[in-house]
Amino acid sequence: VIIQGGSVSVNNCEIYSNAPAYCEPDLQNPIPILRRICPSSVGGVSIWGGSVSFNDCNIYSNAGGNAGGGAGGVAIRGGLGDTATFNNCKIYSNQEINGGANLDISGGTGFDVYFSNCEIYSNSGGGLSIGMGGADFTFNNCDIYSNAVDWEGD
After folding, report:
1. What 3-state class would DSSP assign to 39?
2. Which of 3, 21, 103, 131: disulfide with 40, CB 3.0–4.6 Å?
3. pTM listed for this prediction
């Protein structure tokens, strides 16, 4: 699932058993492909700005990474005025195959990310990664456990 802006609400859903498409190199972009995250290198959910909410959803058994970094479960990017909210969601049993995280979040000042009553567990290849950039992150009553980190991507 790739969300690129707009106002999106996803309720009572199951997102599972997905794999990313290959992320082609961008010859005009000087950032090496292994250092940038392409929207298509995420197995589960890729959010690139907007006002997005997931409520009562399960995101599981997805695989991500595929030569471009990314995330097995969820990747969230945003900037000024963007929000991403997850309520009563589970992110579990996802696999990051290129040394990233299964929940990968980063953004600039004015970007707000909220997780409430969520569980993030039993992911392999990486658990949770929160990048710098001035965004505000809130985890309220969440459980994050049993995630295996593998920096080699094996």
Report:
1. helix
2. 21
3. 0.82
